[in-house]
Amino acid sequence: MTKQKIIYKSERELQEAILEEKRKGIPDLEIGKKYGVNFKYIERLITRSQGLNISNLKIYKKINSLYPKDFREEKTTVWSFKQRGNWATHSGEYRGNWSPYIPRNVILKYSKPGELVLDYFCGAGTTAVECKLLGRRCIAIDINDKAIELAKRKVDFDVLSRQLTFINQEKLSQVYQPELLIGDARNLSFLQDGSIDLICAHPPYANIISYTDSKEGDLSFYDIDDFLREMRQVARESFRILKPGKKCAILIGDTRRKKYVIPLGFKLINIYLEAGFKLRELVIKRQHNYKTTGFWYAN
Length: 299
Description:
Blueprint: H1 11-23, H2 28-35, H3 39-50, E1 78-80, H4 101-110, E2 116-119, H5 126-133, E3 137-142, H6 145-154, E4 179-182, E5 196-201, H7 224-241, E6 242-250, E7 255-257, E8 260-262, H8 264-274, E9 284-286, H9 293-298
Parallel strand pairs: 1-9, 2-3, 2-5, 3-4, 5-6
Antiparallel strand pairs: 7-8
Helix pairs in contact: 7-8
């Protein structure tokens, strides 16, 4: 029996039908085949309607565990996590967010309990959640007010210090509630010079994933040269607010243009070096289970 595509009288009817499918949890690949639209169309529709680039409209999650099972801190410069991590309120519905294993490792390696961690690309609040679980104070900002709303829901869970342990089985002495703010990573004037113990952030990927519906100042809409120009100000502000000798950890992926690799990561490293930083470590993160891999192969 041959499947028939559904024809709608108007674009609005089509979009409402797609959103209803998303509310039911239907995968993008099935929606694309049924309605004759591509992944980018679905992504833009959700971002415009929700103010967030999310893959699942059901963002609430039951907490089954407050820490990753059998966690071991990374000891090499190649990090590989076959599962993205779903402890506490972590989930993968916010497109392009990083695995919680990454900030967890960075926070444990380069900060101490009670120290202040900054994430100036907050997104859905992955770093903020980990700071709360690991007994660090946290300031997390994002230019998108809807992202901050989502992040506030993510960090809104109860935890007793006796429920959590570090790798060496030491108990947390105190749990801190993260401070989540609407703000621009290029302007951190509300923070004093030398006030931050660790920066842990995942910038947008230069015109690859759009995190808002064309919000002014959203760096995810900038192409490579403009993105790197704006990141120079982020790097300068980072150097100003970081305490001497403390660390700034940035995750960035490379990209392609006309089938050729653009080494965006190395270009961004140079910008931070120009701002005064020294390169302590270069870590490669292997990619697993990318949500849209099947979709792109099929199309």
